[in-house]
Amino acid sequence: MFPPMIPTAFFRLAEWMVRNLPRKLTLALGLALARAAFALGVPARRALESNLAPLVGRRAPAERAARAGFEHFARAFIEFLELEGMSLERLEAAVELQGGEHLEAARASGRGVIVLSAHLGNWEWGAARLALRGPRLHIAARRHGTVGVESIFDRRRRTFGLERVCERPLWVGVARLLRAREWVALMGDRAAPGTRHSVCAWAAALARRTGALVLPAVTVRVADS
Q1: What average pLDDT does range 127-142 have in this prediction?
Q2: Which pTM value belongs to this model?
Q3: pLDDT of 160-200, one tens digit each?
Q4: In contact, 122 and 221? CB cutoff 8 Å
Q5: Do 172 and 145 contact (CB within 8 A), yes or no?
Q6: How far apart are CA 210 and CA 116, in angstroms?
Q7: Strand partners, 191
């Protein structure tokens, strides 16, 4: 286990890079670090390859897909750090909203809404874009371990009106918001808090108990931003 100041220092360094270096250089450095971590065989690589193997069937395709996953995460992380200084106009232009009629129908229902998403595309940009011209959105996300790192995430999300659900147990806080007809975003590709069950089943139970709607939404990268 690393001391708490190490991840915070890493995030601060990454923030400095995003603010002070040319964007192309920052992206290149991020990709280089992701490839180095993959080549060194960090535990996350083994876990990702193990998860991908049942989908692609063989070791080599799983390795290629895992390497691409590392590179994608590096880019998404740098883009997330860019949120703090990003204009509303740039975000709106960068993220194309499709299926807006479902968003409007959910809003018109007057009920609480569970936005059920996954770690695809740039999920942080997607959440910010959804909140930009729409309902207030609360993020039911895992803690990142240190106060310093949490503040980095919370500051960027608040720029676009996103708030993290902080109540514990999480179920109580999310249910309270849904009964108040608020919107809550959950990531369906993780286990529910305190269980081994899918967040999808957790979301379904919340919807039944609170009368909330479930609105599936994901982001997909279609071009360089």
Answers
A1: 84
A2: 0.85
A3: 889 888 878 888 999 999 999 999 999 988 888 777 778 89
A4: yes
A5: no
A6: 15
A7: 198
